[in-house]
Amino acid sequence: MFTAINPATGETVAEYSPTSSPDMRAALRAGDKAWQTWRRTSFPERARLLVVVGQLLRARADRYGRLMALEMGKPIAGGRAEVEKCATACDYYAENAERFLADEMIATDASRSYVHHEPIGAVLAIMPWNFPFWQVLRFAAPTLMAGNVALLKHAANVPGCAIAIEELFRDAGFPTGVFQNLLIDHVQLRSVIRHPAVAAVTLTGSTRAGRAVAKQAGDHLKKTVLELGGSDPYLILEDADLELAVEACVTSRLINSGQSCIAAKRFIVVDTVRAEFEERFVVRMAQAKVGDPLDEANTVGPQARRDLRDALQAQVEQSMAKGARCLLGGVVPPGPGAFYPPTVLTDVAKGMAAYGEELFGPVAAIIPVRNEKAAIKVANDTAFGLGAAVFTRDVARGERIAAQELAAGSCFVNAFVRSDSRLPFGGIKESGYGRELSHHSLREFVNVKTVYVK
Predict the structure, then answer these.
(1) Residue 426 near residue 432 (C-beta atoms within 8 A)
(2) Active site positions, annotated
(3) Region label for 41, one of left (φ > 0), alpha (ψ between -120 and 50) or beta (otherwise)
(4) N or C: lower Cβ tally within 10 Å for the chain?
(5) Which pLDDT score, from 0 to 100, does residue 74 have?
(6) Which residues pair with residue 150 across a beta bridge?
(7) How far separated are the first and last CA of the chain, in Å rounded?
(8) Closest to 382 (Cα-Cα) out of 355, 401, 420, 412
(9) Which of 126, 122, 169 is nearest to 146 (CA)?
């Protein structure tokens, strides 16, 4: 059984029967059959259906927000915002996909030569629990608009969200087999990856999971897109606007209760402003309201699972044992649920968990440095490369650092890192490869075909 457990209370929300192996194989056959028709469905018709998905998302925002709160602890206001972001993505791809995938005419010695973008089949999406609707819709919207069909293997702790998303596409009028959810285990997942009907795989998750899936897909020469972990550095230079920087840093660190790949995690602060930054930062972090995610007043809910909360606490304790100082939080609260307080560690240095590992929760690691050069060196001293930000009043300086110095897929100046349907999203190094969102996502899972007519 797939069991959804409320992380705020530890109580069972619901249980769901897994997809049997015969039903899984039937779904793969249905997806392959559906693709034969869907790939030839016109862009306007695909767009019409995707617009309906967006409309239904907005109409069901309260329902879906509550479901996310119950299954993974997302504060309900954040859940509604996530649903709206999904709807916006649907509108964006419905409006732009045909233009983004239009034939590209190339002048050669042929009478006519061009690049044609052709769908490739079923794309399997292995998705995480932290943004249970957004992660799926940001994959599904461009994938379906490109003429592919979608198979979803969602995280085990959000089965209700997975079922609701499949229902969403069905209610919007998408043909049978175009979007299907599979409640399967890892053994079944391996058989899905190698199945001939599956053309490619996309995964958002841990670096460890990415390696495993990439290997399995690679054994069968199937393309993958991987969006993996991150330990995003935020550089606070000596000329930073500290009021702006602190607000952005706290917002990013606490978004989704700290459970985001692109949340700010390492705060690299130049010595001359360190004391003031720390003082302001601690005050602002302490203002966060932790509690029941269904209470509109709370901005930080529980961690998604108790084991994840306990692993986060172990990272904090290891860092403190090696010399980090705790300025706020750092203690598991009593009572039920998987709650963890907003926590600030300072004097973080190389060799500590807070320096080299991803802190997937509301824990901030402050790393003091002497100057800009040292800040850049520390920022890039990581296995990850998903996002980064720099704060300085000299915008040209900040842009130079973001564009030329920071090793990450998304680099922001005087703002916190976030995803946007109009901009490519993804990482380098152990944060993965490939790009989601923007026109780049539409071209990840198509055959870029040369057509040459003499």
Answers:
(1) yes
(2) 227, 261
(3) beta
(4) C
(5) 98
(6) 123, 179
(7) 59
(8) 355
(9) 122
Dihedral-angle region of residue 44 (phi above 0 means left; psi in -120 to 50 means alpha; beta otherwise) = alpha
DSSP-derived 3-state class of residue 425? strand
Assess contact for 56 and 168: CB atoms under 8 A. yes
Q: What is the tens place of the pLDDT at every residue in 110-161?
A: 999 999 999 999 999 999 999 999 999 999 999 999 999 999 999 999 999 9
Task: Give the C-alpha separation, 255 to 264, whole Å.
Answer: 9
Q: What is the pLDDT of residues 20-72, one digit of tens each?
A: 999 999 999 999 999 999 999 999 999 999 999 999 999 999 999 999 999 99
The count of C-alpha atoms lying within 13 angstroms of the C-alpha of 90, restricted to the half-sphere facing its C-beta, is 26
Could you give the dihedral angle defined by the CA atoms of residues 395, 401, 407 and 411, in that order, rounded to the nearest 10 degrees? 0
Domains of the chain, CATH where assigned? 2-228+429-453 (3.40.605.10), 232-413 (3.40.309.10)
The residues, ordered by sequence, that sit 6+ positions from 339 with a Cβ below 8 Å of its Cβ are 8, 290, 291, 301, 302, 303, 309, 333
Which tokens sit at 454? 């003499």
Provide the pairing of β-strand 446-453 with 232-236. unpaired
**Rounded Cα gap, residues 125 and 430, in angstroms:** 19
Cβ atoms of 228 and 427 closer than 8 Å: yes
Residue corresponding to tokens 């499949």 = 166
- Position 102 scores a pLDDT of 98
Pick from 388, 359, 383, 360: nearest CA to 268: 388
Torsion on CA atoms 125, 130, 134, 137, rounded to nearest 10: 20
Among candidates 173, 195, 240, which has minimal Cα distance to 182?
Answer: 195
Q: What is the DSSP letter of 289?
A: P
> CA Rg, the chain, in Å?
23
In this prediction, residues 319-333 reach a mean pLDDT of 98
Of 101, 106, 105, the closest CA to residue 117 belongs to 101
